[in-house]
Each structure stands twice: as C-alpha cells, then as structure tokens.
Predict the structure of ATP phosphoribosyltransferase.
Amino acid sequence: MNSLTLALAKGRTAEQAIKLLAKADIYFPSFTPKSRKLIFYDDSLEIKMVYVKAVDVPTYVETGAADLGIVGKDNIQESGSNIYDLMDLKFGSCKFVVAGVNKTVYTDTKKLTVATKYPQIAMEHFRKQGKQIETIKLNGSVELAPLIGMADVIVDIMETGTTLKENGLEVFETLDHISTRLIVNKASFATKSTRVHNLLSQIQNVLG
C-alpha cells in the first residue's frame, strides 16, 4: 500500500501527539511509548509511523524517508532542513533563552563563550546582534556550564524556569517562542497533495 509516512519524535512529544491524532480519528492501536518497535500503522493502514529521535525527524522529512513529521520547532530550526513547516500543533510550548549567572559578563564581554545544545541557533542569534561568540556543544545539563566557568552564558529551551532558578541562573534574553510543529517534505506536498491536505484538515479541525 502506498501509505503516508509520518516521523514522530520520541518522548513527551509522542504522548501528546498520539492523543491529538486520536482526537482527529487517527489511531495507532499497537503503539505504546515504551515499545521497542520503530514502525507502527494506523488502523486504516493508510499512515505508517516511524518512531525516531526528535533531532532526526527533520532529516527523515527533508530526505523523503518520511512525508510528514511531528517535532519541536527547536529541532527544526537547529537542523536548518529544507522542509515546509505547516502547522503549530499547540503543545510543547517553551522558549529559547539566553541565561547565566552574571549579567555584566553577558553585556560587557566582547566574545562570549556560549554552551548550548543548539549551536546553529545560538550563532545565528548573536550574528544578528553583531556579537562574536564561541560555542560549546553540550547534550545535557547545560545549566552547569556557567556555574563551573565552562561558559559565560547558555542558550537553551525553558519551559517553566524552575531548573534555571534552582541552579541560580537568570534569564537575560528571550530569543523565540517554540512549540511542536507538523512539517512536510516538499516533494510529498506536491505529489501526495490530496492525502496530505486531508490529514492536515483532520488535525486542524480538532485544534480549532
């Protein structure tokens, strides 16, 4: 069967996306978040879902391995993938922020050292401000970097701010608001237009 392929980001995004898809009458009966399976079909066998790491979803969609993807805007922006970002799914809301422990260092240092999971986003942000930076790529516990002198500031996503406060960090600047998005491969948008638009309509109807 020539089904649509949907790349779904693992983790909290998956749980909320599956609930949203169920509201739109799209069910994946064999899916459980803890399953080790990587491919699932909806009950009509018209949608194949591949269950992958969030950071990889834009790549699956850009290369055409998946027609559509559900993933956070943070991963879309960092990847720089050439895809269509068509719909805000209105969950997973958070912010990109610059944070640190000493605002004077942030404002007065000519060349900042920035720790982040998102070096491309950080470089683009500071390039627009005309500031020179050096980035340090970290994959977790980014808040630790300014506390031990590894970096002057961090660029990271913030949902509630609790982790920053508990570690004595202050938000200096908000870069952007982000949320979970539905993205589409450009070729699939043209060659599978009817099916893609039908799926978009089903989801849009439940988003209101």
Observations:
- Residues 4 and 47 are 5 Å apart (CA to CA).
- The first strand starts at residue 4 and ends at 9.
- The two ends are 31 Å apart (CA to CA).
